[in-house]
Write a structure and sequence with these properties.
Strand content: under 5%
Shape: globular
Number of domains: 1
CATH architecture: Up-down Bundle
Number of strands: 0
Number of helices: 16
Structural class: mainly alpha
Order of helices and strands: HHHHHHHHHHHHHHHH
CATH class: Mainly Alpha
Largest sheet: none
Helix content: over 70%
Length: 402
């Protein structure tokens, strides 16, 4: 790869700038959408679940990014996607209707999910394997910092200045657009080390990565859709109070995410994932039966902190993958991640009407299955050693090889 000598014009800084642009819009949207949907659009649980399912459809269609690669460079797709995210967020507050929210959410989500797909691909291509956990941890920390800024501005805007939802959404989206303009005008195109396949790639030897990705998407949706909704509907949290929780999460992640990156590098993917899934089982069971608003807030903060450990799924794939598969598999894995995301919010939204506890116990079940499967991740994964079989099967295989 060509060397760029400027301290601020290099691929890692570009990734960090783009990572900073995302939360300004998406974190603001996430912080406001629960209250906006209930207070302005009069959504109930089923309608909100449907909105979240629509939000996830672009993630389900992320595999189509492969066809965009036939005509556009990955870096350009990332920039255009960020622009769509910013514009979609900026106009959300002006359409407080069922159809209006469905349309603005689709535009915002299309930009968000296609950017995330490309970011995952570019990160695994541009960063050396030995540094990937550290750099991915830094990207999470950068995102957490800009999320912190966004949440702080929202909190002050709602509490101190009495901003309308429409103004708050617009400011957040426009800040993302400003960063898009900077990135587009100031950074050159950075080539990949390996020419990427421009077709869909599904390989049998990646099956464990695919399954862990699917389960991760299912669990995350239950948190994203229903944990925040519970805080508003069951415990009466205001938009400002919910934003304060996000502020706490982001402040901790600025410090914690790089440390988690180092822990993954030291522990290995299997141990890091096992720790994450064991903790999530406890948290989801807690959600199911919590009756105290402060305890619910503590669970919400802990849940969010476990997100950074998902880095281990990406570093596991980077170690086992053919380099030319990365861009294609980024799209495929995002689609796999969102299969459950398209179905679960609407389905569990109906379940929510009769039993909110059952929704969170479903999340605990997904975490338990993930815990069993992550024990099959080798201590030192690589191409040809993608899965650690149970002891007896491993012994049989080794005997057959001998």
């Amino acid at each position: 790869m060509k060397k760029y000598h400027s301290k601020w014009r290099n691929p890692e800084i570009l990734l960090m700038l783009m990572a900073a642009a995302v939360p300004l819009s998406f974190a603001s949207w996430s912080a406001l959408i629960n209250n906006f949907a209930i207070e302005q659009a009069a959504f109930d649980g089923a309608e909100f679940g449907m909105l979240q399912s629509i939000r996830e459809i672009p993630g389900f269609l992320a595999f189509l990014v492969i066809f965009l690669l036939l005509y556009f460079r990955e870096q350009n797709i990332a920039i255009i996607s960020l622009l769509m995210l910013g514009v979609g967020t900026a106009i959300t507050g002006y359409f407080p209707t069922l159809v209006g929210l469905f349309c603005t959410t689709w535009l915002m989500s299309l930009g968000f999910h296609y950017y995330q797909t490309i970011q995952n691909s570019l990160s695994l291509q541009w960063i050396e394997k030995s540094r990937t956990p550290y750099v991915l941890g830094k990207l999470i920390a950068v995102g957490s910092f800009t999320s912190l800024v966004a949440y702080l501005l929202i909190f002050l805007g709602l509490k101190a200045f009495g901003l309308e939802y429409s103004s708050t959404f617009a400011i957040a989206g426009c800040l993302t657009v400003v960063i898009v303009i900077i990135v587009w005008s100031c950074y050159p195109h950075y080539p990949s080390k390996t020419v990427q396949h421009k077709k869909l790639v599904l390989r049998k030897r990646y099956w464990l990565y695919y399954v862990l990705t699917f389960l991760s998407g299912a669990r995350r949706q239950i948190f994203v859709v229903f944990a925040g909704f519970m805080m508003v509907e069951k415990f009466g949290y205001s938009a400002a109070s919910l934003t304060l929780l996000f502020l706490i999460n982001c402040a901790i992640n600025i410090w914690l995410a790089p440390i988690i990156g180092k822990l993954i590098a030291n522990w290995g993917e299997s141990k890091a994932l096992a720790f994450e899934y064991a903790g999530l089982i406890i948290i989801f069971v807690g959600y199911a039966f919590v009756q105290n608003a402060n305890v619910a807030a503590a669970l919400y903060i802990l849940d969010h902190l476990f997100f950074a450990l998902a880095i281990a799924i990406q570093t596991y794939f980077q170690k086992i993958a053919d380099q030319a598969d990365i861009a294609s598999t980024a799209g495929v894995s995002f689609t796999i991640n969102h299969i459950a995301a398209v179905i679960l919010p609407a389905t569990l939204g109906v379940v929510w009407l009769t039993s909110p506890a059952a929704v969170f116990l479903t999340g605990a079940g997904f975490a338990a299955v993930s815990l069993v499967l992550c024990l099959m991740v080798p201590n030192e994964p690589r191409s040809g050693k993608e899965v650690r079989l149970p002891f007896r099967a491993e012994a049989v295989r080794q005997g057959a090889v001998r």
